[in-house]
Amino acid sequence: MDDFNTSENSNEVESATFFHAGSFKISNATARNWKRLNTHLESRLTTRANKRKSSKRILPVEYISHSENISFLQSLLDLIDENHWDIFAVIYTMAETLLKDANLFSQEHIQKVLHDYNEIKPITALNKIQIPKNEFDILGLVYQSYLQEGKKNIIGSYYTPKSIVENMIREFDFSKNQTFLDPCCGSGAFLLNINVQNPNLIFGCDQDKIAVLIAKINLLLKYKNFEFIPQIYHLDFLQGNSLFSQQEIFGKKFDYIATNPPWGAMDNSYCEEFEITSKETFSCFFVKAFSQLKKDGIIRFLFPEAILNVKVHQDIRKFILNHTCLSSITIYGNSFSGVVTKYVDIECKNTPAQETIEVFQNNEKRIVKVKTFTTTENYVFNLLSNFDAEIVCVAKEKGHYFLNDSIWALGIVTGGNHDKLKDEWFQGSEKIYTGKEIQAYLLKPAKKYIIYNRGELQQVAKDEIYRAKEKIVYKFISKKLVFAYDNSQSLFLNSANILIPNVPHMSIKTVMAFLNSSLFQFLYLKLFGGIKILKGNLMQLPFPEISEKDDKTLAKFVDEILNGNDSKISEIDNFIFAFYKLNQEQINYIKETVYGNFN
What's the rounded Cα separation, in Å, for the pair 167 and 361? Predict the structure, then answer.
């Protein structure tokens, strides 16, 4: 349906094996760790999936056309709850009322549509309510408002705001009777907004039977001068569940396909045929839908922003680059009510690939070369402008070494911070740092203490890593690279990751200087982005070959910073800018990109 379904597994996933418990999914590694620590499975699942069990309702304000209708929605929800009415019966009763108000109810084609729902008993008490006439989808709005947060999260039912729908379909041309499909249509947001005169050119399907009813009624009301049966089918687009739908939907190809698919990992053998190893729902929908796009046709999907750079989604990025003509990406600045994830829409064509795409963001358009997406091994859609690409190329041309042969480790996963961490030193304990204490180059004083008993901790690295003579640590949850130096053989929690680098001709302090520099901040931001600093991305940063003299100079700067001379941070930046022979315009752009208004 035209919806959102956020997934706990939206970040980088190294292993795609999962353990299922009821309707929840956790990694096998997590299940083993919980078992080893005698963690009660249902308790942990309840904690991590509390959103899926939420009974809270969230009004989809971005889906409301007129704010004065909020009071109607709230009053209707109260009535439904007080009388324990079935929501299907509520929607059907309101549909009958709308059809009667439009003088359509008695028409033969209307009765044929309603005949499929003759088992539903209308609620007579609702016949007298005054339904707002100024909402483009009042039935869908009521349904969305009724659904509890937990139900929405499970079925992925978050409908698309009208403004986004209009933007996604604005250039679709139906002057030559082109056909349109929405493979997860919900209540019909896309179907209602396309500029087509003949409703028989419109096709849709959804596995939510209430949403399908709403979509049918919406089309009957919009095209009230046509005698037609809406071609909206109750089925799972990825599987199909009737011989009739096999021919009506799967036996056709379409000129235009647009939708907002469900989000979240799933088990589906169809995806395996196209190497969608993540089994991510929106990726499977895209691959299946593209197979039904006509030559020269256009497909446009709304995706979570993570599709641009998160490693687990490299499969769909690779499919798009290898099998479609990627034509545009639009980046939106907001999220939906009840969903924190931001989103983008991606447009592809069934034509030969082109060298550039259009990127729309904040009412601006820029042209990006498609070949920049192959500069990283995970096909990251980094959306580099020509100026961005120039700077990245300068860094890559000097890049000779990478962090592949370095030692990496996660901080400690305690299995229960509340019980195992204390705010003050106690007998047998030692200090342990968290990500909060990591700043560029230096560690703030530790605020937590722990007894380091490896057998009672959920996940620990090797002792020799924690106790290394020197190591650098970095914030895991961060939009920027933040690396600090440690030579105290201290412990770190899993909000911090550990790196003991192995880069030829560079000391550990020099490697840290490059990683904290404005240039490497810029490279990471432009190539990968995101809110997590991932090992796989760090391993793709190109380190140059430097002289022994340069190594000593940078290491000395770092020593002075560690001794309290913060002015050397800017000297390190200037040294690295000069090393790469960047001009002042490039330097200013890097600083503005990384730090904002740096003057």
Answer: 13
Range with lowest mean pLDDT among 28-32, 72-76, 214-218, 235-239: 28-32
Shared-domain flag, residues 365 and 427: no
Write down the pLDDT at residue 188: 95
Tokens of 288: 């299946």
Report the alpha-carbon angle 207-57-44, nearest 5. 85
**Helices and strands: H and E segment counts in the chain:** 23, 20
CATH of the domain at 379: 3.40.50.150
- Label residues 563-572 b or e (16+ Cβ within 10 Å = b): eeeeebbeeb
* 3-state SS assignment for residue 232: strand
Residues 6+ apart with CB under 8 A from 12: 310, 311, 312, 532, 534, 536
Tokens in use for 470?
């020197």
Distance linking the first and last C-alpha atoms of the chain: 47
Q: In this structure, is residue 255 part of a structural domain?
A: yes
Q: Are residues 344 and 469 in the same domain?
A: no
> Where a domain ends, among 316, 351, 383?
383
Structural domains of the chain, count: 2
279 burial type by CB count under 10 A (0-12 exposed, 13-18 middle, 19+ buried): buried
Q: Check whether residue 162 and residue 282 sit in a common domain.
A: yes
Asked if residues 316 and 307 have their Cβ atoms less than 8 Å apart, the reply is yes
Alpha-carbon distance 361 to 538, whole Å? 27
CB 518 within 8 A of CB 573: yes
- Owning domain of residue 518: 407-595
Cα(255)–Cα(237) distance, integer angstroms: 17
Question: Which of 193, 247, 254, 195 is CA-nearest to residue 218?
Answer: 193
Stretch (H or E) spanning 486: strand 483-486
How far apart (Å, rounded) are the C-alpha atoms in residues 539 and 519? 16
Q: Are residues 429 and 377 in the same domain?
A: no
**The one-letter amino acid at 96:** E
Q: Which of 520, 171, 586, 596 is nearest to 385 (CA)?
A: 586
How much is the pTM?
Answer: 0.73
445 and 311, same structural domain? no
Q: Which helix (H) or strand (E) holds 367?
A: strand 364-369
Residue 505 within any structural domain of the chain: yes
Angle between helices 209-222 and 108-115 (to 10 degrees): 180
Summarize pLDDT for 536-593 with one digit per residue, the tens. 899 999 999 999 999 999 999 999 999 999 999 999 999 999 999 999 999 999 999 9
Separation CA 44–CA 223 (nearest Å): 51
| Secondary structure (DSSP) of 352-366 | ---SEEEEEETTEEE
Domain-embedded: residue 133: no
Give yes or no: residues 500 and 362 share one domain: no
12 located within any domain: no
Asked if 175 and 310 sit in the same domain, the reply is yes
- Do 510 and 563 lie in one domain? The reply is yes
